[in-house]
Amino acid sequence: MDFALTPEQRDLRERVIRFARDELGAKAAEHDRDESFDRDGWKACAEFGVLGWPVPAEYGGSGHDPLTTIIACEALGYGCADNGLAFAVDNHLWACVIYLLRHGSPQQRARFLPGLVDGTLIGAHALTEPETGSDMLSLTTTAQRDGDAYVIDGAKCFISNGTVADLYVLFARTARSGPAQQALSAFLLPRDTPGLEVRRAISKAGLRGTPMGELRLTGCRLPAENLLGAEGAGYRVFTSVIEWERGFMAAGQVGRLQRLLETSVAYANDRTQFGVPIGAFQAVSHRLADLRVNLELARLMLYKVGWLKREGRIALLEASILKLFAGESLLEGALAAMRVHGARGYVADLPIEREVRDALAAPTFGGTSDIQRTIIAGLTGLPEGSHGA
Predict the structure, then answer these.
(1) d(CA 275, CA 173)
(2) Which of 118, 206, 259, 379 could form a disulfide with 317 if both were Cys (CB 3.0 to 4.6 A apart)?
(3) Which fold has domain 125-232?
């Protein structure tokens, strides 16, 4: 078992880190304060090729294999000081582009992928509703077939990239009866579709450079050719892609965890109290030792998920373990970094307090930590109902 990166992967990782440090995040504090989207940073990511890492060359992408892509995403999370911008990229790739790659027809891919790769289109995922949360099978948004179109009515909320997106992967109910798993369908919904309204931007504690929005669909008439997969296959489409979203979006978290560790170690070696560096105090050194342990374990799980997907294998269990562990470790690591920095970690003119706010969402988005524990318990063989819901 060889854990070494290939020369090509090492070179890509180094180039991504240099790019992210040199060209991204200079105005991270400003975008956080104003809750604004960094369009210049988005364009730079597109020009560097970030938005096409997993996309075949025929659509303008790099065609990287899943493991190489996950290594590049980790490097972006490590090098980019604007966690909001990096998270917007993650949502674009792993909650929109991946659906086209896995389930899009040749016509749909040709229509949308080039724009998603070159940055002229921004992607988003319109699943969550005000009352359903993680209960996907209870969605109330409806899509009624009417000739060569579907008429969609409903509301979606907490949509990352929602206010700036040009294309939404939307889930709606197409059957009023029968098995719940066969009642939902997935659609590709352009922003300019009549009847679609971006109702409001939603303010949030962290990742404020990723705009969050609420959508309203009223008699929204969408051509039937925008159906993603077969009618009634929405649940299967979602479950076949969610391991990509959960697993690959964790890459940026692992990168951020390494950045937090390095920043905290540097501060602990430089800051002196009582005549010695604070890193000499066991309370500080043990805290950072725990952060290092979590980083190494999260990275091993991250690369395992990337390897499994490169080999064309299912990674549902591994993606849930990674999502749970990386998200909880990032939040724990951000709080540890704040404690190591003391008052300097709390004040708003330094980035550590922003790192804490950005980490707050890690155990929630993409399926909460409790949902991941439920999935893990079920895949471990525990009987249904014994591990909560």
Answers:
(1) 66
(2) 379
(3) Butyryl-CoA Dehydrogenase, subunit A; domain 2 (2.40.110)
8 in catalytic set? no
- Per-residue model confidence as pLDDT tens digits over 257-271: 999 999 999 999 999
Confidence (pTM): 0.95
In this prediction, residue 385 carries a pLDDT of 57
Cβ 207 vs Cβ 330: under 8 Å? no
DSSP state of 61: -
Q: What is the pLDDT of residues 151-169, one digit of tens each?
A: 999 999 999 999 999 999 9
Token pair for residue 186?
């997935």
Query: Which candidate in 214, 245, 318, 353 is catalytic?
Result: 245
- Taking the CA atoms of 89, 91, 92 and 94 in sequence, report the sign of the dihedral they define: positive
DSSP category for residue 191: T
Domain 235-380, CATH: 1.20.140.10
Where along the chain do its domains lie? 7-122, 125-232, 235-380
Query: Over the stretch 24-63, which tens digit does the pLDDT of each residue have?
Result: 999 999 999 999 999 999 999 999 999 999 999 999 999 9
The topology under which CATH files domain 7-122 is: Butyryl-Coa Dehydrogenase, subunit A; domain 1 (1.10.540)
Dist CA 126 CA 188 (whole Å): 10
φ/ψ of residue 283, rounded to 5? -60, -35
Same topology, domains 7-122 and 125-232? Answer is no
Residues 80, 25: contact at Cβ < 8 Å? Answer: yes
With residue 141 as reference, give the H or E element that holds it. none
